[in-house]
Amino acid sequence: MPKKLSPYMSYGEKLISLFASLMFSGKNHSLTNLSKMLQCSKQTVLRLVNDIRKSYGVDIEESMQGNKRYYRIKKPRQMLPAINLTETEMNVLRMCKAFSEHLLGKELFKEATRALEKSQALLPKDKALSSYSFASFSPGSIDYTPYQESIRMLLEAMEKKRICKINYRAIMSEKLKTFYIKPLKIFSHHDTIYLHAGMARKPGKTYKEPDFDPLLAMHRIKNVELTERMFKFPKKYDFEKIFNQDFGIIKEDSFKAEVEFTGWSARYVSERIWSPDQKIIKKADGKIRLIFSASSEYELKGWALSFADEARVVKPKWLVEKVSQTIKRMKKVYS
């Protein structure tokens, strides 16, 4: 028997998802696009359409445009209440949904899609927006579908202020470690979802103040368990001050750095913000010098080397020496 295209959806879930898409959008959907959306064969889509017709008496219209078959459900004639969302607001939400598809995972992305389809059903017909205007390019991204339950559990814990017990495997570790945490913020960085948390006391142990709050990659959290213990969200917690003041997601002691760029890299770097206090000095030969704050030696070194011979670390001197040593080791690898 051939493997199902989507191991995460039952036949009933596909049926409900198809019905909701047709009902709330009021648009024509091609058989091809429905097959892609539900991750099943066209034959399965046809079975779903017939089951909806037979079981619920829903009038699903079928039409042909060229060699493509389309389906839709007529909107009811009665007037629907006006929606508060404007056309522009809906457009921005569609853009956000498309750009975050690879971060949400299949289940959460479908929930976002259903919410927008319900809202679109209340817009005037001439204000209906296309869902095909936006997309995301995501090579090297992580499939978060297997981690949907952990994300849901953490969202519940954040809402109810409940301490969590988690099992976590660090990137260079072969063994799982158990932590008790206070989940504070879920955020994304470079197409990866992270959890910033406070360390909580282990049951039966004396609490010891940690050197730093744990920063956890969502895909390395193997399971989440809500405990009955509560926590208070820290009043002075400021995500912007913690993460968005320096270059680097790893937060060590902050330091000033200077990197010189040339060619294509100079234009690329000058278009972006690397730290709020950055300065860009333009030189006559087309080079630029970026002066900015950083908090992660490891990330800054890797970032500078990613520009190959179009970037040169100038300051601090200790970082120049470390980059130089790395280049020497790379030369040995390639020789």
How does this structure look, described?
The longest helix is centred in the first third of the chain and has 20 residues, at 101-120. β4 (162-168) and β5 form a beta hairpin. The chain has 335 residues and is α+β, with helices and mostly antiparallel strands. The protein has ten helices and twelve strands. α1 crosses α3. The two termini are 50 Å apart. 37% of the residues lie in helices and 23% in strands.
CATH architecture heading of the largest domain = 2-Layer Sandwich
* pLDDT averaged residue by residue: 85
Proportion of beta-strand residues: 15-25%
Find the count of extended strands (DSSP E, 2+ residues): 12
> Which residues sit in consecutive blocks of at least 5 with pLDDT less than 50?
none
Query: Gap between N and C termini, in Å?
Result: 50 Å
The first-level CATH class of the largest domain is given as Alpha Beta
Count of the domains: 4
Q: Topology as H/E string?
A: HEHHEEHHHEEEEEHEHEEHEH
Structural class: alpha+beta
The main pleated sheet reads as: 5 strands, antiparallel
